[in-house]
């Protein structure tokens, strides 16, 4: 007897190998996949502007990338000795205004360059809810702890979600016609919005995304695909033991499970032996000895560096 339902995972292409370049954007869940790809030393750019939960806020960033936008003083505000920008996550904040403007423009340029060479673009949708800045009626990517009285909360419709994904895809393919776009919906619940509100939000994301993909099938059938991370967690791992202490974010076991499904669908089996070797090296690099100065530990490090050199000689794209 089988006591659970299994979400079928289709074999996908083009496969991810060590020649691939992967761009990842969106909610915190995309970082779970991105962290695994980085751990195994694939070439990755991951949320260069920080976590962006709402697809319409993500579209605004893609529009900045597309138009070669140049950030300036007008885009920056200061609060509690920190400079911030409503386009990006607070991880981009800086105490120095000039330095922050430089970082924003440098990140914009490097993201554009990486996108132009990316074989795969992974986008995870987090929420349909967004916050509108009352002073100029625009959607912000992050409120940066500005008083909530300055914003109006809005849920975006499935149609608005669909339109934003259409525009994001157009920009990606304008920059890079060969990129494969992988969409997924984050299984992380946004319970601060409320239980019912979270369900409404996910429903709009799912409906908008699949409506978009149905249209794409008529035009670009092989250029987009959907990875069912939301369904895997909701249907296969529907138990609180697969969540962290906050009962919202996924546990390490759940992340590993979803990663294994992603690996099965997307990673070229030919590179599994390389991934296994990298895992051994990573564990060696994270090892903390009792005595760092001992001859035995120095010998261990020398052997580890030799392993790294041999691996990199065979696979020049792998960097430690």
TrEMBL record:
<dbReference type="Pfam" id="PF08885">
    <property type="entry name" value="GSCFA"/>
</dbReference>
<feature type="domain" description="GSCFA">
    <location>
        <begin position="21"/>
        <end position="262"/>
    </location>
</feature>
<keyword id="KW-0378">Hydrolase</keyword>
<dbReference type="GO" id="GO:0016787">
    <property type="term" value="F:hydrolase activity"/>
</dbReference>
<protein>
    <submittedName>
        <fullName>GSCFA domain-containing protein</fullName>
        <ecNumber>3.1.-.-</ecNumber>
    </submittedName>
</protein>
<dbReference type="InterPro" id="IPR014982">
    <property type="entry name" value="GSCFA"/>
</dbReference>
């Amino acid at each position: 007897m089988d006591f659970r339902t299994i979400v079928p995972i289709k074999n996908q292409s083009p496969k991810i190998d060590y020649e691939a370049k992967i761009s990842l954007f969106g909610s915190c869940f995309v970082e779970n996949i991105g962290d695994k790809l980085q751990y195994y030393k694939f070439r990755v750019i991951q949320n260069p502007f920080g976590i962006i939960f709402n697809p319409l806020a993500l579209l605004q960033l893609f529009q900045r990338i597309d138009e070669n936008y140049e950030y300036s003083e007008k885009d920056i505000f200061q609060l509690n000795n920190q400079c911030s920008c409503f386009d990006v996550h607070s991880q981009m904040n800086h105490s120095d205004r000039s330095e922050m403007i430089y970082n924003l423009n440098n990140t914009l340029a490097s993201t554009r360059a990486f996108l132009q060479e990316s074989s795969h673009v992974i986008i995870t949708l987090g929420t349909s809810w967004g916050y509108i800045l009352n002073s100029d009626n625009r959607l912000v990517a992050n409120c940066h702890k500005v008083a909530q009285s300055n914003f109006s909360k809005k849920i975006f419709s499935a149609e608005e979600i669909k339109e934003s994904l259409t525009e994001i895809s157009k920009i990606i393919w304008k920059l890079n016609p060969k990129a494969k776009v992988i969409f997924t919906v984050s299984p992380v619940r946004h319970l601060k919005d409320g239980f019912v509100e979270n369900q409404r939000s996910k429903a709009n994301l799912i409906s908008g995304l699949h409506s978009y993909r149905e249209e794409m099938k008529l035009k670009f059938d092989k250029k987009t695909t959907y990875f069912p991370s939301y369904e895997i967690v909701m249907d296969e791992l529907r138990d609180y033991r697969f969540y962290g202490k906050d009962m919202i974010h996924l546990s390490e076991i759940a992340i590993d499970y979803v990663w294994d499904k992603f690996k099965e669908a997307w990673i070229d089996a030919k590179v599994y032996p390389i991934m296994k070797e990298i895992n051994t090296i990573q564990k060696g690099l994270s090892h903390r000895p009792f005595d760092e100065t001992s001859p035995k530990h120095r010998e261990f490090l020398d052997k580890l560096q030799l392993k790294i050199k041999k691996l990199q000689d065979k696979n020049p794209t792998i960097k430690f």
